[in-house]
Write a structure and sequence with these properties.
- The protein has one domain.
- 19% of the residues lie in helices and 47% in strands.
- The protein is built from 2 helices and 10 strands; from the N terminus they run H-E-E-E-E-E-E-E-E-H-E-E.
- A hairpin with a 2-residue loop joins strand 5 and strand 6.
């Protein structure tokens, strides 16, 4: 009898482990998402204050990289410029899963005026958590996460008009801003981690 119970528990444990392994490998089994951009794309635009050009922005798809066993687009977004006595040199890099379009890593390097801050996030969509280097480990996140820069690319994948709804899920530190698409083909929910700027 004891042997039968032990065998049953072992079978249940093996089943649970199999489901967990399948869930972890599921993103790699999906086809790569069709998107209107590809490796090597570079976009340049002017940054203006009214009619005055105050800087230049660039968006580029640097290439593809492996992030924790998942294929990811590596994108870079930079803004350089400013006005007298206040210069801006911002850089944001994203690693976006090519199949689920979820953020996996996010680098934010902001140089604005006298402020110079760099942050690096590891994002775990399957666990709905994120870690910030030197700050937090596996803090609660949301399903289908998108970072600031990745969201700009996500908008380009939407073929019809969309509406935006926001909701804060944290009282301090990074917050999540949730966006829902009104696309007729699907209605995904995405989140844009951001940081509250305090005066």
């Amino acid at each position: 009898m004891l042997a039968l119970i032990t065998a049953h528990v072992s079978a249940e444990r093996a089943w649970a482990q199999g489901i967990a392994a399948f869930s972890a490998s599921w993103p790699r089994l999906q086809p790569r998402m069709a998107v209107p951009f590809d490796t090597g794309e570079k976009l340049t635009f002017d940054v203006r204050f009214g009619a005055i050009k105050v800087g230049t922005g660039r968006m580029e798809v640097v290439g593809m990289q492996d992030v924790r066993g998942r294929e990811a687009w590596h994108t870079r977004f930079t803004v350089k410029g400013g006005i007298p006595f206040y210069k801006v040199n911002d850089r944001m890099e994203s690693w976006i899963d090519t199949r689920t379009f979820e953020s996996l890593q996010f680098l934010q390097d902001l140089q604005e005026g006298r402020r110079d801050k760099e942050r690096f996030y590891e994002i775990y969509p399957d666990l709905a958590t994120y870690s910030e280097k030197g700050e937090v480990e596996h803090a609660p996140s949301v399903a289908d996460p998108l970072d600031d820069a990745a969201f700009l690319y996500f908008v380009r994948t939407i073929r019809s008009r969309w509406e935006r709804r926001t909701s804060s899920i944290a009282t301090s530190g990074p917050i999540a801003i949730r966006f829902r698409s009104a696309c007729c083909e699907r209605k995904p929910s995405r989140c844009l981690p951001a940081r509250i700027r305090r005066s």
